[in-house]
Amino acid sequence: MCVPQRCLTNDDLAQIVDTSDEWIRSRTGIETRYVCSDGETTAQLSIAAARAALQMADANPRDIDLILVGTTTPDHLMPSTACQVQDALGATRAGALDVNAGCSGFVYALAMGHQAIASGEHNLVLVIGADTLSRTINWQDRSICVLFGDGAGAVLLRATEGPAGVLATLLGSDGSGADLLMIPAGGSAMPATAQTVEQGLHYLQMNGREVFRFATTIIPRAVHQVAAKAGLPISEIDWVIPHQANLRIIDAAAKRLKLPEEHFIINLQRYGNTSAASVPIALCEAIAEGKIRPGQNIVLVGFGAGLTWAAVALKWGIEPEEAISPRWRRWWRSLIYRWARLRTDLRHLGRQVTVLLIRLTERRVNGKKG
Ligand code: COA
Q1: Which tens digits make up the pLDDT trace of 225-236?
Q2: Same domain, yes or no, for 114 and 255?
Q3: Do 148 and 70 share a domain, yes or no?
Q4: Is this prediction's pTM over 0.85?
Q5: Measuring from atom 46 of ligand 1, which residue has the nearest CA?
């Protein structure tokens, strides 16, 4: 996982808008969040998270078959952030694409990555959830700016035989709720103009109460459905890792599921809502804290803009000590990253030299004609 350096506390926000630490904590549970400084981007966070995942899994970037990045805040509308990740990792054999499913993006991409492996087509899939919603927020709008943070989380899915792994997946959508969470301008329906910027239409707009209602209904429903698909009684779920939007949403979902809150991984106090990054960041932290053990049943559940929702039931299978990478292979990976950088620079240079040569040739031919 990776989050930006810059940390904003609730008191910091109270200096910007009319809010208070007490209001934010009691209505959302959030205490701090990390936001990008100038120059930090979704791709950069994704690349750092991906390198950490490769390190953990002791995997070679050149063995990656597919890179999926769940994000709604790509560095550019085109090309995809996944292609930037592919380039920086030197993952020369990989296909790469972004998955735009709002805050459900990571769980969506995880389900799709699993299907790509289950089909027999791929062996190693890199799945990333990354967002920098701070770039889309009106920092004068107190009802929104207190909720979100930036970050990225990544996992590697590997084809293996055995009882552990993904047990079941669930994807859902309801486009009739598109207007509940939306950035109206900047797409083909309303290209960015001076006027759209003046009207603030490039900012994230949200109907908080309706989204709240949707979230408290959809989390328990999705968990029930994916657990049923996996043949897993709710009482046998060791951990639910929900999208980290609001503590009150998670409380309500836990009550409806009749599953004690101790079975929920919650870290939104520190990070706020990091959109597609929230589930993998919570997963990474839970692994690092030793909460997640081999043999445990885990349900990941996301919801967000679209509207979308997604859930994945899985059985954890990795001992933490398995994840130690020998030093020489770390060195090898860092060499691959440096070579990837050099390769890109050389290709850019090669293209510039080609253009220059073509121009010189054209000038010489035109000179002779003259
Ligand atoms: N500080 C202080 N007051 C604030 C505030 C803030 N940051 N934001 C809103 N308020 C005010 C409102 O203006 C309103 O005042 P009013 O009654 O005088 O009009 C009051 O607080 C209550 O607002 P309300 O919207 O009813 O609060 P709420 O209890 O519903 O909580 C959210 C608001 C946004 C925290 C809550 O609706 C929520 O979490 N929704 C889901 C959002 C979400 O998860 N989005 C991402 C999904 S992926």
Answers
A1: 999 999 999 999
A2: yes
A3: yes
A4: yes
A5: 245
